[in-house]
Amino acid sequence: MKTTSLIFKATIILVFILLTACAKQIPEQRFTVENAKFSLLITGMTSEFKADIISRIVDRYKDKGNIYLINMDKLDQMQCEDYDAILVIDSVQASSLWNFSLKSFLEKTENCKNIVLLYTAGDSDWEYQYHELDAITSASQMDDQDRVFNELTYQIDVLIAKK
């Protein structure tokens, strides 16, 4: 009986390690400008698809506002009111069961209106909503990148314009 329990626990730990090992953190960076018109926080997990989108977003906004890229594990320490827009990028893995920082942040900030979510999933028709927060969803397919970029920048532009 003890052996079965130990094997089960070891399997759970191994699955957790494999899921988190496949995901890469966004490298922490800061892009600041004098007389910034806004502040944008970007956090999440990255892949080739997501890294290209992040690069395009940074290029679009870096001359107009301050952009902060942080590791997802620091997200639950952030305050939504400190930023004009917050872009959170994640993958759906086990229904994001393992992403405790994101879950904690979303629970803590459910009244914040400046969060933009991008979730990638294997199913391109999958949709996600957390309370009143709709996520932009996409499969990580390069031919879908322009649509995702345009949807993200539209939502970020709306948030920045409210400032």
From the N-terminal CA to the C-terminal CA, the straight-line distance is 60 Å
Question: What proportion strand?
Answer: 15-25%
Shape designation: globular
CATH topology: Rossmann fold
Total of helices = 4
**Rg value:** 17 Å
Query: What's the overall average pLDDT, rounded?
Result: 75
Q: Provide the CATH architecture.
A: 3-Layer(aba) Sandwich
Level-1 CATH class name:
Alpha Beta
Q: What is the percent of helical residues? A: 25-40%
Please tell me the total number of domains.
Answer: 1
The main β sheet shows up as:
8 strands, mixed
* SSE topology string: HEEEHEEHEEEH
Unreliable sequence segments: 8-22
CATH superfamily placement: Response regulator
Number of strands: 8
- How does the helix and strand content classify structurally? alpha/beta
